[in-house]
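Below is a filled-in request sheet from our internal design queue. Each sheet records the structural input a requester submitted and the sequence that came back. We keep these sheets so that new team members can see what a complete request looks like end to end.

REQUESTER: design group, bay 2
PRIORITY: normal
MODE: inverse folding
CHAIN LENGTH: 256
BACKBONE (tokenized):
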């Protein structure tokens, strides 16, 4: 008997990298998936929660290297929902924090496909937290900004200039290539000595952390050959990192 198809899209947050940081609800969604479309920052270990016959398609987008455009992904979701049934769109972090999850939900809704959302631990909070850096702390930081470094036209986000004027913790995603511009924005507000951490491969065994200040961090990142994916954390909360007190030249390179 031919299997009856129920078109459905579930947009799922995979968390910041460590496969143990995915939610039980996300695992349940994977276990029922007919198709999984997964991103570059998704830990492939998570695919083991899906049935063996589930169709698994990599649709990752990294800088200057896209397997699929967003429009193609949107169309894949619709096509596969109608031909296979339950589609899980698996995204790193949380799908609604610079993850385009809302765009994909809206596209599926336009075709009357049932949709649901499973939030994930955002890397903007989970990665600093796993490194011992709180994004808020009583008496030090009463709020935090989460900013993508680059606007759609490729320019530095204006929000970074606004955030640099505050005392809030600033977490910048997808910003390593614009680190020099970011530090210049903070220098113009007199914050050259403000602590900053750059965390590569956060929550994974390959995590690398460079800690310094706005004045020194660009050169230190070059010296340590830090690459994306990496998250930038700016503010006095960086002092809570376990290696901060042992700094000898404003910077510490740590491999966890």
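RETURNED SEQUENCE:
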């Amino acid at each position: 008997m031919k299997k009856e198809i129920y078109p459905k899209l579930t947009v799922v947050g995979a968390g910041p990298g460590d496969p143990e940081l995915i939610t039980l609800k996300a695992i349940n969604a994977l276990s029922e998936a007919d198709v999984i479309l997964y991103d570059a920052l998704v830990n492939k270990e998570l695919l083991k929660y899906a049935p063996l016959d589930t169709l698994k398609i990599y649709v990752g987008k990294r800088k200057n290297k896209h397997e699929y455009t967003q429009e193609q992904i949107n169309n894949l979701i619709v096509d596969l929902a109608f031909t296979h049934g339950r589609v899980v769109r698996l995204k790193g972090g949380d799908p609604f924090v610079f993850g385009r999850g809302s765009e994909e939900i809206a596209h599926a809704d336009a075709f009357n496909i049932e949709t649901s959302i499973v939030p994930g631990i955002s890397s903007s909070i989970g990665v600093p937290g796993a490194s011992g850096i709180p994004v808020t702390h009583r008496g030090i930081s009463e709020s935090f900004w989460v900013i993508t470094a680059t606007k759609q036209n490729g320019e530095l986000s204006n929000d970074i200039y606004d955030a640099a004027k505050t005392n809030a913790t600033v977490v910048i995603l997808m910003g390593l290539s614009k680190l020099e511009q970011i530090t210049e924005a903070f220098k113009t507000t007199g914050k050259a000595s403000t602590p900053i951490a750059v965390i590569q491969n956060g929550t994974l065994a390959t995590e690398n952390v460079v800690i310094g200040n706005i004045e020194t961090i660009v050169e230190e990142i070059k010296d340590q050959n830090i690459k994306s994916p990496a998250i930038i954390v700016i503010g006095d909360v960086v002092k809570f990192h376990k290696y901060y007190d042992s700094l000898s030249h404003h910077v510490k390179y740590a491999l966890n």
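SHEET NOTES:
- The helical segments are 24-31, 70-83, 101-109, 123-130, 158-163, 179-187, 217-224.
- Residues 74 and 107 are 7 Å apart (CA to CA).
FILED BY: M.R.
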